[in-house]
Model the fold of this input.
Amino acid sequence: SAVISQKPSRDICQRGTSLTIQCQVDSQVTMMFWYRQQPGQSLTLIATANQGSEATYESGFVIDKFPISRPNLTFSTLTVSNMSPEDSSIYLCSGILVGTGGTDTQYFGPGTRLTVL
Amino acid sequence: TQLLEQSPQFLSIQEGENLTVYCNSSSVFSSLQWYRQEPGEGPVLLVTVVTGGEVKKLKRLTFQFGDARKDSSLHITAAQTGDTGLYLCAGDETDSWGKLQFGAGTQVVVTP
Done:
């Protein structure tokens, strides 16, 4: 299994500022992803974090707003730039660990709860 | 993008009762996963179903994947208060390199 931690766990930020969220995995994972979730609602995929290259963004998300880094197989960061109240959400990272017999499991971090005033 | 519809959105039952959550799509998924999420935590994988018609049991939880691999259900027998949580189904799109399409989620509340 894999244990994923995120920092910070929560933050309250002012409009116009930026916040970088860190995601650390205790195992080497193949794929890493960043999601956004409103409390009690579903997850929306922001992007796939690619090691050593630019992230792959989903429709509606752009690099200028959500720059992502992934310098190695166990670590990634997501920055929420020039924040507005609409960015208030829970941000989660996940990683895929290849299992035996070809079964892959996607593990999630606990999330970072962001409030923008 | 393949849309996953999950129902019901909210379910409140008493301990000992049974419940079923449904996950439906008009498209075929290579696999489908069920997660449970508790407040302040990330989703935790319960099961992955891959084969059409597959049925998997995890203690009091029974998961079924439709024959056509477009729908799935989660049935909980004799629910306990510890089953309270947000249940999410997620489909693995073909050739998606692990990208998951999540359903809207079902909030289950089990009261004593």
